[in-house]
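Appendix B. Raw example, untouched.
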Amino acid sequence: MSLDVSSRQFQQWIKQAGQLVSDFYERKEEGSVFAGQSPTEVQELLEESLPEKAESINNLLDETGEKILSSITNNIGPRYYGYITGGGNQVAVLAEMIKASLNQNNLKWHSSPVSTELERLVMRWVAEFIGYPTSSAGVLLSGGSVANFNCLAVARKIKAPADISEEGVYGSRPMTVYVSEEGHSSFDKAMDMLGLGKSYLRKIPVDEQMRIDPEQLEKQVQKDKNRGLEPICAIAVAGTTNSGAVDDLQAVAEICQKHGLWYHVDAAYGGPAAKVEGVSELFEGIEQADSVVVNPHKWMYVPFEAGGVLVKNPEHLRRTFSTIPDYLKSDQQNGGRTDLMEYNLPLTKEFKALKVWMTLKAYGADRIRSEIARDIGKAKYLAELVEEHEQLELIAHGSLSIVCFRYSPDGLDETSLNELNDRIIDEIETDGRVFLTGTKIHGKTALRACFINHRTENDDIDFLRDVVLEIGSGLNS
């Protein structure tokens, strides 16, 4: 007996589910950004035994609206400034519905020819969008952490001083990798999981603009060589998580070329700005990278998940990930087919490319770059508001769309200011009217606002400032 229902019934469910989505978007500017529920409250809302009997789908959709949509963090709304979380777009919502209905798995070309070829196409488009060679190969993964892992795995395989495929790294000299102190935590995880060891990830000091210091990078590489270690990879960050700083990509490229290192650029956040007028010069040198990570689900306004990997030489991906057991052999003559299972660790691959394709087709590269430029302008606007107010202090504002600031009334020492701003961060979450996160910049607790949401306007930014001042004043009274 099939789990399916009649076409008429299915259409009714789609209509009801669509109404839930439409209502959610209609209310996106209302109420709290953060629902403010405790873990216990959320658990109690959802707690129930395993359902053994069927439930009415109409009732189930009603329950979804009551329990799920009422408790969700509203990161599509204009007052969400946390992490590096894009607001998505409505065309991609349609793509996700279609994708789920098609249930494609493009592990092999013949298991989903359109899904495979569309992923190849959109990664070529992403390469073109950021100014990277379109002869590269790429895949879509869950996000930047997995994408960076994917690229470091390639760097290890290609640059290891011995063949590690059969015997592992045990017979090799310790391999070192280099990234700035502002590099993402995914590199620590990757070094651990790849067996290279976190102590061999060299954290290079940064300059006043929070960018990697090329002179210190050069010195550390040479020092490790002199010690008999094996430097294999240097990483430049094109848009750090903390402040949005962009490393000197050309300088890192030259050091990699000099020492024969794999050159990786983590552009998961900043990459889409690479050809935006006013900041494009920051990205000169990205085209020289052996690999790049750029996430459409960040600053290309695609909903989660869509993390992109680009590798200049496609054969390097195959050398790293191609393992073909008997049960996956097919098409002995090849015939121009590409099996994406040879380009990444996962075997199962959902149809992520559809929402990227529909987004780029619906809005066009020019419109998306225009929205990116607007986001950069919003960050500048907040920085100006902060500098204009005597009780606010600008801590960091790079060239992209992240602003770090703090509430800084007169009469408090650094320890007290840190404690006060830590409390403000906690209170902002409890308050729920806006959502932002905190970080540390040069030892100072900072409120961190990230602008990669096309729905945010200057009025929302004014509101953010007012909420911070209100909460800060209340806690300091």
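End of appendix B.
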